[in-house]
Every structure is written in C-alpha cells, then in structure tokens.
Design brief:
- The complex is a heterodimer of chains A (about 375) and B (about 450).
- By secondary structure, chain A is mostly helical.
- Chain A has 15 helices and 2 strands.
- Chain A has one domain: MetI-like fold.
- Chain B is mainly alpha-helical and about 450 residues long.
- Chain B has 2 domains: about 150 residues, no CATH class; about 230 residues, MetI-like (MetI-like fold, Orthogonal Bundle), CATH 1.10.3720.
- Helices cover about 70% and strands about 5% of the residues of chain B.
- Chain B contains 17 helices and 6 strands.
- In chain B, the strands form 3 sheets. A two-stranded antiparallel sheet of chain B has the order 1-4.
- In chain B, a hairpin with an 8-residue loop joins strand 2 and strand 3.
- The chains are: A mainly alpha (about 375), B mainly alpha (about 450).
C-alpha cells in the first residue's frame, strides 16, 4: 500500500471535479442567467403593459364617439349632458407651447452645448455642468409655482415693458453684427484701400440708422402692449424652455464630443477661425446627435404637466389670432390631470375614457419620437465609424 | 470676407455661447432666490401674540405665565376698541332707517376687518373653524389687514381703454361724525401694543401637522409623505435597476432581443409623467388592486417604474467605467464570472451607482403627476408606517399645487406655499449636491 505523497493528494482534490458537480454548476449558471434575463426584461414588460393598459381604456372612447369630433372640433364640454369632446383646441394648445419653448430652448441649448464642448476651458466647464444639472433637478411643481406666483403677476403688471427690454437685449447684438457683416460684404469688391474704407463707413452709418430706427419703433410698440392675464402661453413657453434646456445641452454636448479631434484639427490646419470650424465642420458632423437631443428636449416640454396646469390659464380655446401667445390656453397634460378627479367617479363613461385617449395620444407621440431619435443616433454612429 | 470681420464674428460667436450659459445660471438664480428668501419666512418671521396664543392652545407649547401677562397687557388696549364698537352699535340702533342702511354694511366690513386682526370679539359665538379663532399671527399680514381696515378699496373703471385701476378711500372719512371715527386712528397708533410683535423662530413648521388646512401649524405630514413615497420607490427600483444593468453590461450578447431591451429602456425614459400616473391608476389600483383606492404602495410602485430607466442607465455607466484590468485580474485568479461581479465589479462601481440612485431619489421626491391619481391627498395627518399599504398620504409636491391653485384661501397662505416649495427644493438640491460631490470624489480617486 503506497502512501500518496502530499502533492499527489492535493492535486487530486483540487483539480478534479466530478461530472455531477459540473452539471449542477451548469444548471445553476443557466438558471441564474435566465433569472437575470427575466428581471432585465421587466423593463420591456413594463413598456408593453403601459401601452396595453392605456390603450385598453382609450379604445372605448373612440368606439363610443368616433375620431372626427375629437380631432376636429373645439367644443370641449365634457360635463354637459350629452358631453362634447372636441379636443382640437387642447391639442393646439399643447403644440403651441411646445413650439414656443423649442424656439427659445433650441438655439440657446445648442449654443451652450457648443460653448461647453469647444470654447470653454476645462476648469470653467467643471463649474458650468453642475449649474445645468441643478436646473434639471428642480422639480416641475417648483417651476410651476414660480410661474404662477412670480412670473404671472410680473407679466400682468409690466408685461409690455418686459417685452420691450427682451426685444432690445436680444435683437440689438444680432443687428449690430448684421450691419457690420453686410457693410463688409458690400465693399469687398472695391480695390482701392481708401475708397473701400469710406464706402464701408458709409454703409455702416446707413444700416446703423435703419437698425436703430427699427429697434425703436418695435420697442415702443411692444411697450404699449397690455398683457391681460399673466397665466398665458408665453409664460408657460418660457418656463418650459428652461426645463427642456438641460436635456438639449447634455445630449448635444455628448454628440459634439463624439465628433473626433481629427476633424477639428484638420479644419484649424486649413486656416479656419474657431467659429468657422464649429459652424462649417463640427455642427454638420454632429447634426444628427443634436437633432436627437432636440427631439428629446421637445418631448420633455410636451409631456410636462404641473407647469402648464398651474400657469397656462386652462382655457380651452384657440387663440385669436392663432399666433397670439399672450392668451390663456389649455394642454393635453393639464386636461388629463385636472379632469381625472371628477371623471374617475364615473368609470366607464366617455368622460373617463377620453382622458385615456389623450394619454394614449401623448404616449404614441413619445414612442414615435423616441424611435425616430434612436434611428438617427444609430445612423450617425454608423456613418462616423464607417468613414 | 475681411479678416477683421471674421475675427469679430468669431468673438461674437464665443459671446453667444457664453451668454447662453450665463442666462441659464441667471434663470436658476431667479427661480431659486425668491423661493429661498420667502421660504425662510415660514420659519423665521415676526409673530404676534395671536401666534403665541395659537401655539399654546393647539400645540401646548410656550411659557404660560409669560403668555398670560402678554394677553392681559393686550386686553388693556383692546378694551378701548371693544368700547368704541359697543358705543357705535348702540348709536346704530338709534339711527333713522335711511342713515342706518347707509352705515350698516360699512360697519359690517369694519367689524370683519377688526375680527381678522384681533380674533373673535367679546359676545361673538365661538367660531367652528380654527382659522377664525385667532387674529393675525404674522406681523406683515397684520400690516396688510390694518390697511384693509383703514382704507376701503374701490375700482376706477372710467377709462374704457385700459383695465380698471384700484384706489383707496379712507374709512374714517366715511364714518366722520359718528362714534366710530376715533377707532381708526386709535388702531393705527396702538396696533403694536395690541398685537405685541416679536421675532419668532417657528421650528414647528417642519415638525407639526397642519391645523385647519394649513392656516396654522406645519408641514410635517407632507414631508413624511414625500419621504415614504421616495424611499418606497427606491426600494422597488434600485435592486431591479442594478440587476438589469448588470445583465446589460455583463451577460447580454449583441442580438435582436437585447437591442429591443435597450430600446425599451430609452422608451420608458421618454414616457410623459402623467401617463405613468394614468398607468398606475389603471394597472396597480384598478387591475392588480394592490390597494382599494389611493395608497402609498401604489404611488411608490408608479414612481419606481418612472425612475427605473435612470437607475439602469447610471448603473450601466458606472459598471462600464470599472477598468478592464479589475475583471481580468479577478478571472485570472480563478474566480467565476458571478463571483467576479459580486465581489469585485459591483463594489468598484458602487459609488457611481449610488450617485445615480441619489439623483433618482431626488427625482422621485419631486415628481407630482405620477402620484396625483395613485397616492396623494390634500389634507391629512401623518400616516403611520403600518398604513403605507392601504392609505394615501399628503406629499410636498402635490400639496404645493393644491395649496397654490385649489385652496380657497390660496392668496392668504403664500408663506406656507413658499415654505413647502423651499422644503422640496432644499431636499432635491441637497440630494443632487451630494451626488455631485460624490462624483467629484470618485473621479479624484480614479485619477489618483
């Protein structure tokens, strides 16, 4: 009987695993992975459930009342007997404030993203990013409270003056630039130095007078405007734009960073200024990412509830004229939030189901925009990596 | 183009970019500064003797003896007011009908104004609502009510082009010659001795329940409700989110199914918050019947599915940021894949995951739309821990809306609204600040 040496003994216990144990391990591994997959696919299950349950309560409305009245009529009287459910004015209100906030937020957001990715030094960027994150973190009800209690009375008391100041502050720099560029472009063809300089000054003063006159006339016009109600579409658009800004800025900045250094360096090497590099090379290259960011930001504005509920005036009518942002409007989200309390008492009625129909409309729009923005990002990634 | 012009364009481009960021920072300040400055006024303010009386009667707080002497001193000055009122009432009785009609409604207005300032007058029946049992508790509100007493507001609608203008008519002129006339100058000069204002620090605003729908008392039930809802949401979403993120980063193979799952994640992130609320109502309450009607459980579940995508994204980023070398070293030492994840990767990614969790917590605390239909009530006392499965709760976010828009006395309770908004914004900003600090510490550790 030969005694096994210590090395032999240890070798046999450590490196040989029985077949049974191996199979148990394999079962445990697949079971564990399966469990993980099940838990992870919870997310997809939730999405499907949301779609299903909202649709389930929305379809009865269309079965009861059809599609025409909902989408083409502006008569929204759900409490009447029989109720009228024309949601055109409400849909228009939603689109109006979304467009308004996009007009303010998109230029500002893209400019800020460009600034963060290309212009600001790294140390300043470290301080700018927390500011944007704080702006994103403020709850929507706090924004709504601010819009109702601070901005609305301000607009009502001195709305015209506010508009005039905004006009002056925003437009005068751009007009000044336009004057300079126009005068320059109109005098490039003249060869003689002295004559060109004189012509340049002439154009400068001429265009300068015109723009100052323009500023003054529109400014006084605006100053005379009396804002009747402070809770209106303009109020909501301004606040919504500040809520959509952080989304647009962060996603755009990611897109701009993804455009590689080689493109930038090539452009600088050819003698372009920083502005020209950004406008002519980087922006086009990152355009799909910026487009995706804009879509996401707009979706945030469209789906916002508390701000519009508190500060839009909640008046279901299409403004007269159609571009009058100084009138009270009503949005889909505010209608759902406001009416559900009473509608819930009569589950099964058209009043209850029409709210789900509105929710389903919002859900559909958000699904489609999400899908579109994903496609854009995938296409851009393919283009950038393919080159 | 001229090189000079190109330079100007370049500089102005830089200016536009920097200007946008400055505008954002300004917007942040413009929104936060009024909230902070007015919100502090909910706790630190000049309170009157009525406030101290209310604290004594409703909450049994305060020095009884000192209060008794203050009340006695105030009553000495009030006695004159009661005297004048009594004299005028007798005079009113004896007037001829035409004169009587002229003075009766104006006297009623004056009496209501006095009651708003001083509380119930002797001879009045005890009011049912607590808000009428006391006079003005805050000195700045007392100043406004004094103005209401001394001046009557009228509207000038003569100019049809502009909106009507408000102007004020002195009430003492209306009562000139009657025995009520000395009331007004007396009130004006003695209001301080009657109401005895002094600087108050009312920490009870944070710890007391509200008395008579927020007329007095504090906002503790709302704070606790927000805490329950946010914690409940994290309880459901955090483990699920981290596990899903582990699956996405470690186990998922590129393929149709997994790209669908990632799509689902970003789709869920884009769903409007009000639709989450409707889903919570339709699914958790009406279909699954987790509770009979609104409850903290249903609200937490709804909030959980809302913050789930954010947690998954943050956890994914944190796990991906763990250096490959950690994984390779662990595997080379003979550890299994699951063991590596549990003992090496997750602890290394934990700070990043926690950062994402803290930000999501802030989001869950601040959201209103998901809880409107599933968990929130406007008034109520703080619920006990055992009731979370069955009863709804007041919450800061919902009650800010309710108090500011639907409450019948919204304009009088501005200080409470500001206090609530201040509390909510403080909670959320503190959470976010800690997340930012945490992230800065992580990047410092990663570099060094």
């Amino acid at each position: 009987m030969a005694e096994k040496s210590a090395v032999e003994r240890s070798r046999s216990t450590v490196f040989v695993v029985s077949a049974r144990k191996r199979m148990l391990n394999k079962i445990a591994k697949t079971a564990g992975e399966g469990l993980l997959f099940a838990l992870a696919s919870f997310v997809a299950v939730i999405v499907i459930f949301i779609f299903f349950f909202v649709a389930r309560d929305a379809v009865p409305f269309f079965q009861l009342r059809g599609f025409t009245e909902f989408f083409t009529s502006s008569n929204w009287y759900p409490a009447d007997e029989p109720g009228q459910f024309g949601a055109l004015a409400i849909i228009y209100g939603s689109l109006m404030v979304t467009l308004g906030s996009a007009l303010i937020a998109v230029p500002m957001g893209v400019a800020a993203a460009i600034c963060l990715s290309d212009i600001l030094p790294f140390s300043v960027r470290q301080y700018a990013k927390p500011v944007i994150e704080m702006l994103a973190a403020i709850p929507s009800v706090a924004f709504g409270f601010f819009a109702l209690v601070v901005l609305a009375p301000l607009m009502q008391n001195s709305g015209g003056t506010m508009l005039m100041w905004a006009w002056w502050l925003l437009v005068s720099p751009f007009l000044l630039l336009a004057v300079i560029v126009a005068s320059d472009l109109l005098t490039t063809s003249i060869q003689d130095e002295k004559r060109r300089h004189n012509r340049y000054m002439l154009f400068l003063t001429f265009f300068g007078f015109i723009s100052v006159a323009l500023l003054f006339t529109v400014g006084t016009l605006l100053n005379g405007i009396q804002i009747i109600t402070g809770t209106n579409a303009l109020n909501v658009s301004i606040i919504l734009s500040f809520m959509a800004l952080p989304t647009i800025v962060s996603v755009s900045e990611d897109a701009l960073q993804a455009v590689g250094r080689d493109i930038r360096e090539g452009s600088y090497a050819l003698g372009a200024t920083r502005a020209e590099t950004i406008i002519k090379t980087i922006l086009p290259a990152g355009s799909s990412g910026i487009l995706a960011a804009v879509i996401l930001g707009i979706m945030r504005a469209l789906g916002e509830t508390m701000v519009v509920w508190m500060a839009s005036g909640n008046s279901s009518h299409i403004p007269d004229p159609w571009f009058n942002y100084l009138e009270a409007i009503r949005t889909l989200t505010a209608t759902i939030a406001g009416d559900m309390g009473e509608a819930d008492q009569v589950t099964g009625s058209a009043r209850f189901h029409v709210l789900f129909a509105m929710g389903f409309l919002l859900l559909l729009i958000s699904f489609i925009s999400n899908f579109v923005s994903e496609r854009i990002v995938i296409r851009q990634r393919r283009i950038l990596s393919g080159q | 183009m001229n090189i000079g012009t190109r330079k100007i364009l370049d500089r102005s481009f830089t200016a536009v970019g920097i200007g946008s960021i400055i505008v954002m920072a300004l917007a942040l300040m413009v929104v936060v500064v009024p909230i902070v400055s007015n919100g502090i006024g909910a706790v630190f303010f000049t309170g009157t003797v009525e406030h101290r009386k209310m604290l004594r009667n409703e909450f049994q707080r305060g020095d009884t003896q000192h209060l008794a002497s203050e009340v006695a001193s105030s009553e000495r000055y009030r006695a004159r007011v009661y005297e004048i009122l009594g004299t005028f009432e007798k005079e009113l009785e004896g007037m001829e009908p035409a004169l009587k009609r002229q003075y009766t409604s104006k006297y009623a207005q004056t009496r209501t104004a006095i009651q708003a300032l001083l509380g119930p007058l002797p001879g009045d029946t005890t009011p049912m609502l607590t808000r009428f049992k006391y006079g003005q508790t805050r000195w700045e509100k007392a100043g406004e009510k004094l103005h209401d007493l001394l001046y009557e507001s009228k509207w000038d609608n003569s100019n049809s082009e502009i909106m009507g203008k408000e102007y004020f008519v002195s009430r003492s002129n209306a009562f000139k010659g009657t025995s009520l006339a000395p009331l007004f100058p007396y009130m004006k000069s003695n209001i301080e001795k009657i109401l005895l204002p002094e600087f108050t620090v009312y920490w009870g605003f944070i710890t007391d329940s509200s008395v008579d729908s927020h007329f007095f008392g504090g906002i503790w039930p709302e704070i606790q409700g927000t805490f329950f809802l946010a914690m409940g949401a994290m309880l459901f979403a955090f483990p699920l989110g981290v596990i899903a993120a582990v699956y996405f980063t470690e186990y998922a193979r590129p393929g149709f199914l997994n790209s669908m799952l990632r799509s689902a994640n970003s789709t869920l992130a884009g769903v409007p918050s009000i639709v989450f609320g409707m889903f919570g109502l339709a699914f958790f309450i009406n279909t699954l019947k987790v509770s009979e009607s609104k409850s903290v459980l249903a609200g937490s579940l709804t909030l959980a599915i809302m913050i789930l995508p954010t947690i998954i994204r943050a956890a994914e980023e944190a796990i991906l940021a763990v250096p490959k070398t950690y994984r390779e070293a662990s595997l080379s030492l003979g550890s299994t894949k699951w063991n590596t994840i549990a003992t090496v990767i997750l602890p290394a990614a934990l700070p990043g995951i926690l950062t994402g969790g803290v930000i999501s917590l802030g989001r869950a605390a601040g959201e209103t739309a998901p809880i409107i239909f599933t968990a929130a009530v406007s008034v109520g006392s703080a619920i006990g821990l055992a009731d979370v499965f069955s009863s709804p709760t007041p919450a800061l976010s919902w009650n800010i809306y309710n108090l500011a828009s639907e409450h019948e006395a919204a304009a009088q309770l501005r200080h409470v609204q500001y206090g609530m908004v201040f509390a909510l914004v403080t909670i959320v900003l503190l959470l976010n600040l800690s997340a930012i600090v945490l992230r800065a510490q992580i990047s410092k550790k990663m570099k060094g």
